[in-house]
Amino acid sequence: MSWVFIVLLIVFSLFKIAAASAPSAVVEKIGKIFQLHPTLSYDVKVKQNGKSLSEEKRRHFVDEFNQANFLEKYYYPPAPEGIPYEIEVKNDKYLIYPYPDRVDVFKYTKKKVFSYSLRSQTLQGQATH
What we know:
This protein is an alpha+beta fold. The protein has four helices and seven strands, in the order H-H-E-E-H-E-E-E-E-E-H. Strands 2-1-4-5-6-7-3 form a seven-stranded antiparallel sheet.
């Protein structure tokens, strides 16, 4: 019976060492899976009020979204006001509501909705209120 304990101890120790010394590329890939505010590429669709943004405005909007600072995650999402920007990615959809003091983001995945706020001076300047 004690040999089972020793084998399990060795296996778990090896697993701990392998997990602690994983290459940074593997850690980044696993981290991106659980990331709430991702870095978007330029091949996404950005719309406002049902109309697609021009190429230049879309690139600028994606740059500002990627550079925005994450403020907080909402556990009880606020009621959105105004006309949102819509970003469509492969399996996700983002609704972005700019306000003068923050930017609210609603992330729709297959079955869940996540909401959080960002700080971006450029995106906040696009508030329609």
